[in-house]
Amino acid sequence: MKKLIYSFSFFFLLIFSSLWAQDSSIEARKLLNQYEAALRSKSLDKIAQCFHPECRILPEGSLPVDGHAGVKGVFEELQTLDFEENFTIKEAIPMGDMVYIHTWNEGISENPATRERSKFSYKGQMILKKDSTASWKI
């Protein structure tokens, strides 16, 4: 009887965890759709709105930056490029009040002045956390 109870408990825990991960992935996809649109718009305010007010980002080849002002500083150079990036969620792992997202990112950038185009693709990681309005943010 104990084995049966443990088996059911494990089964329900597994189902609950699976549903929570699925919900997290859906919410993450909504946020990444918003983020992709913000990047295409080149609006620093829209990009910053995708990030948690207390965020810390680690730009490649640079020191970490904090908050919305830091985000705007990092993404300022996008205003001079024609740029598109698409995110594919590979994994969403709930971690208490946060969700770890593993992504595959692909895109194209073009310098309008030189017409130089470059394609890129890379693995990405993000941690999502709800803000004071209960909205998921990077």
Explain this structure.
It contains three helices and six strands; from the N terminus they run ααββαββββ. It is an alpha+beta fold. The strands form two sheets. The chain has a four-stranded antiparallel beta sheet, with helices on one face. It is globular. The relative contact order is 0.16.
Keywords:
single chain, 138 residues, alpha+beta, four-stranded antiparallel sheet, two-stranded antiparallel sheet, 40% helix, globular, disordered N terminus
Total number of helices: 3
Helix content: 25-40%
Radius of gyration, in Å, reads 19 Å
Largest sheet: 4 strands, antiparallel
Strand content: 35-45%
Question: What is the H/E order?
Answer: HHEEHEEEE
Strand arrangement across the biggest beta sheet: 3-4-5-6
Give a brief description.
The protein has helices spanning 2-41, 44-49, 67-75; strands at residues 56-57, 65-66, 82-95, 98-111, 116-130, 136-137.
Question: Which secondary structure elements does this structure contain, and how are they paired or packed?
Answer:
Elements: H1 2-41, H2 44-49, E1 56-57, E2 65-66, H3 67-75, E3 82-95, E4 98-111, E5 116-130, E6 136-137
Antiparallel strand pairs: 1-2, 3-4, 4-5, 5-6
